[in-house]
Amino acid sequence: MGCSASVCFWVFLPIDHLAVISYGKTTAMVFTVPEAVQTPVGVRSCHSRIDALRASMNNIKITYDGRITAWNSKLTTHRASKLPLLRQSPEWELFCLLPTEGKEEFLTSCLGSSHVANSDSVPEPAPRARRGLKGITAYGRTLIRGGAQYLEDRYGVKHLSFLTCTLPPEALAVCTPESWAEVLNRFLKSLRLHLVKGGLSPEIVGCIEVQEIRLLQESGRPPLHLHVVFQGRQIGKAWAYPGEFYQALWERACKSVWEDIQGFQSSCRVESLRSSAVSYLGKYMSKGGDVLNLCKPELLPSAWYTISTKLKAFVKGATLKLSGQAAHDLYETLYRGDQMLWARSVMSEFSDIGVCYLLAWVAQIRSRETYWEIVNSIREVWYPMVLDDLTVML
Q: Which fold has domain 138-302?
């Protein structure tokens, strides 16, 4: 059994050294594990059995689709002038339990090295890679999930359309990132215009996918598919436009950029959603990412998602962010409750001396009813929400 301040905990795995290191408002709990248990199985056992080593989280974010991320303040080194204060703290004795190489490893690898301004030489910054080479970003995924969730909440799954647009072989042979972006811009503008004419919402959200099968046949040229979700009909009415209409819009947009291109007979497919819009787009967000290294980098698009301006503003504005004691209290409530569909702890890798620490906690709220229960409780206690104003705006 080990103790830190007034907190005691039991350890069920063999641990060589344990330390709780506190730097101001940031606390890091570190421990070294014998080589015999430094395996993936040992790591999972350690995470599940040593609940007391779960550090408190002072930041939490809840996105509109119900994704929760909790994390602690970033660990940073302190100047030498503050080290005497650290030596006066009770945690210093626990830190001294680490072997010499353990202290060096933890302070250099976990907490970071000296600030660049204090270094003798400033390294040259690495050239910035072109956008899009790594596929869709985490920020883009958040926008897509939130946008799809809003359309689902506002209009219902039964009134949404899921449209897939592909390029025929002739267009694919001349497609470049610039021309692809121009085609999307013209097509989406035309689609929004006709949605408004049909009495529908102009808000659109979607992603771009690389079709793996065609990629192997095209020798590195990425076969791009566009997937978008939007309101396809009003409540109680028939679908506003048939599939041939969307295909004509797509063909017109492509031919306005690439003249004399043929083969658009089956380039579009529109269907009604049978389940969650978030699930539909999520399936395509996860496809094709493993084959990006087989594509020619100069042919990859710079953006892998699309979302309307107002819809993007809503998703960003509807994201709850808490910090300090409020974030800690909410995290403890959610962590110990049963409101999550799934949850996982993001841990750092074990270093050579077996040091490991908690980076973040990520979870998905079980249902929309549970999401609104959590949001309403935050409204009442901590956070003046603006979701109602944003909903009226849209």
A: Alpha-Beta Plaits (3.30.70)
